[in-house]
Design a protein that fits this description.
This protein is an alpha/beta fold. It is built from 16 helices and six strands. The chain has a six-stranded mixed β-sheet, sandwiched between helices. The two termini are 23 Å apart.
Length: 327
């Protein structure tokens, strides 16, 4: 039986960018903070979460940059003045969220030189270890539209995609993604990721990557990742489709992309893991008056109207960490 969903993990950078780029609010000074809170509160209503962790980018992965110096390097930035103005507004909204989220009982987590995706992954592992030690099942939901998080879906972890208002779970994975979960990383590794400047293979697009991931011979009984795919290059080389055949001589690119995409390949230092564990073990208490005062200063009148009801999902966070039994 799946564990109850008591932990909510937020890909905070991604969510803030998404709400700030909505046309209706793009010019408003604190639209990002407002939209972030509204989306978070809507998600908090879905399950009786006992803990919420917002994870932020603290820089790019040094390991990924060593593997690929152009990783996440953007050359086409459009209008530089407009981009700079957006960056300034983003930093301002992020700063206010860093102040506001702890007042709502949300763990606000950022580590220097670590990407939010990897922090989410490590926070999930840390929470699972704490839950296992306490013999208390803890299910988690990750809020993000980033498809890379699909690699985390299992019996106890779902992905909530707010733009589609849908959950990707083990039961909905194939209907939504059109692939079984164990084949998703092969698809991503063949395809690459233009948004992160992760290289693809010439003449190989999404259709071909999907064909290889869905039909290629993988061995689920082996260690996850490339060892499962040992037979795929030969299968590609013998394929009748020339685009599939093009993958065989470029297999090193597939293996490189796996190293760039797979969260499990990013090793954290013991000190970093200790910080994540400590943050989970000691979440901030809900400060209802402090949250009201700051939201009032930001003139979030529509959220403050009926505030006693609005904050109810956050009040549950005062019950303590998700891995501790309720009294």
């Amino acid at each position: 039986m799946a564990a109850p969903r008591t932990l909510l993990l937020v890909d905070a950078n991604h969510l803030l960018h998404r709400v700030m780029r909505q046309p209706a609010t793009v010019e408003l000074k604190f639209a990002g903070t407002f939209g972030f809170l509204r989306c978070l509160r809507n998600a908090m209503e879905r399950y009786p979460y006992r803990q919420c962790i917002a994870c932020w980018d603290g820089g790019l992965s040094a390991r990924r940059l060593q593997l690929l110096p152009t990783y996440k390097h953007r050359t086409d930035r459009g209008d530089e003045a407009e981009a700079e103005e957006y960056r300034a507004r983003f930093k301002l909204n992020r700063a206010y969220l860093h102040r506001l989220l702890p007042l709502l009982g949300v763990v606000d987590l950022k580590l220097a030189g670590r990407e939010a995706d990897d922090i989410v992954f490590q926070a999930r592992l840390a929470a699972q270890r704490l839950a296992d030690a306490a013999a208390l099942p803890v299910g988690a939901v990750v809020i993000s539209e980033d498809r890379d998080f699909l690699q985390m879906v299992n019996d106890d972890t779902d992905i909530y995609q707010p733009r589609h208002d849908r959950y990707v779970t083990t039961s909905s994975f194939v209907p939504i993604v059109k692939l079984p979960p164990e084949r998703f990383l092969l698809f991503k590794s063949v395809l690459g990721d233009a948004g992160d400047n992760v290289p693809g293979i010439k003449s190989v697009g999404e259709v071909t990557a999907f064909q290889i991931a869905s039909e290629g011979p993988i061995a689920p009984e082996r260690e996850p990742g490339p060892p499962q795919w040992d037979d795929v290059p030969a299968w590609c080389a013998a394929h009748e489709n020339r685009r599939v055949r093009a993958v065989a001589p470029a297999w090193d690119t597939v293996l490189l992309n796996y190293e760039l995409v797979a969260f499990a390949r990013e090793a954290f230092e013991r000190e970093e893991l200790d910080r994540i564990r400590a943050a989970i073990e000691s979440p901030p208490p809900v400060n209802q008056d402090g949250a009201y005062e700051l939201m009032d200063a930001l003139q979030f009148a529509s959220l403050l109207h009926g505030f006693a009801n609005w904050i109810v999902p956050f009040r549950r966070l005062d019950s303590g960490p998700c891995f501790r039994r309720l009294p």
